[in-house]
Amino acid sequence: MKVFLAIVFSLFVHTLVAQHIFSVKGNKTYLDDTVFQAIGLRCSNALINDQAVDSLINYLDEYRSYGLNTISVYLLGSRYSNIYGYNQDGTLDPVYQQRLEQIIEACDQRKMVVLVGILYWGSSQHGRSNEHYATWGQEEVNTAMRNTVQWLTDKEYRNIFIDPDNEGMAERAASFDIGEMICEGKKVNADLPIAYNSRGYPPPCADLNIHFANQTEQLPYIETEGTPSQYWGDYSKEAGLDHYINVGIYTKGKKNQQLTRTQELLDEGHGYLLASTWLQNVPPRFDLGGDGSACDPGIRWWCEFIKDRYKNAEQ
Fold first, then answer.
1. Which of 170, 174, 172, 168 has the alpha carbon at shortest distance from 206?
2. Could you tell me if 163 and 117 are in contact, meaning their C-beta atoms sit under 8 angstroms apart?
3. What kind of fold does domain 20-313 have according to CATH?
């Protein structure tokens, strides 16, 4: 009897994994074989600690209420954080792995997709250096890709896609061949979608273009770091600081730029993930805040635009 119950429980748990499948067919993205338009938030620093993970998960239902269906999370974090999701040999650190598991599974329960970021190079780390991975070469980044894809495959996570190199930073700074890295991941699991995120055209083994990559007719495109123009310049960063400035604050002009670009890409059928100092500053915060003014900073104003214009059209 105990054996029978154990088998039933195991099957029950198994059915809770990989309920939803993100895929790419031609120049469109799909979720569960239905055309899917990614709309969401860049939550790149979410793995920084357990509190951040819990906070993000606690707000996922609110995100869904606004029509958001996708988030991005990076195993090397983003600017001003020390997120070391990989050991020196390219294996996943179990602490960060467990945090990412929680996020992926919580998103799957809510029919949400997760962009899993691997490399966030150079200025990603606190202190503006990547000394922790200074010894890495092509083999190490290939190994990190293979291990990540193998882990996602073993866990049977399908509500995901991979960004191998945020903004092509590692490709430029360390001369890694990201095309080779993508192809190594596809050798492990050809069905797991892997994106290209560097200026120019994607390698043949990439499944979709995101952010910096050129838009092409052959592959789908998702803007995974949508901001107003010049947002990451002097407006949000100051030399010598290890945090952002003007956190969650938007001028009228920047709001208009954000909404115009959001509408433009979504109406063309592409995906769009908003990036903001509100989400990305350390420690990250995942509540939506307010109207983006100095008195009430945040990104709720953008989420309300999404809810008003696009939620009812969500598949």
1. 168
2. yes
3. TIM Barrel (3.20.20)
- pLDDT beyond 70 at 314: no
Helices 178-188 and 138-154, axial angle in degrees (round to 10): 30
Q: Which residue has the tokens 């509100």?
A: 278
| Domain residue spans of the chain | 20-313
Q: Which residues contact 301 (CB under 8 A, 6 or more apart)?
A: 250, 255, 290, 291, 292
Q: What's the pLDDT band for 131 if we cut at 50, 70, 90?
A: confident
Q: What is the pLDDT of residue 241?
A: 87
Closest CA to 91 of 143, 135, 139, 142: 143
Kindly report the backbone phi and psi dihedral angles of residue 131, in degrees, each rounded to the nearest multiple of 5, phi listed first: -60, -30
Q: How far apart are CA 72 and CA 80, in angstroms?
A: 17
Whether residue 283 is preceded by a cis peptide bond, meaning omega within 30 degrees of 0, is yes
Separation of alpha carbons 47 and 56, rounded Å: 10
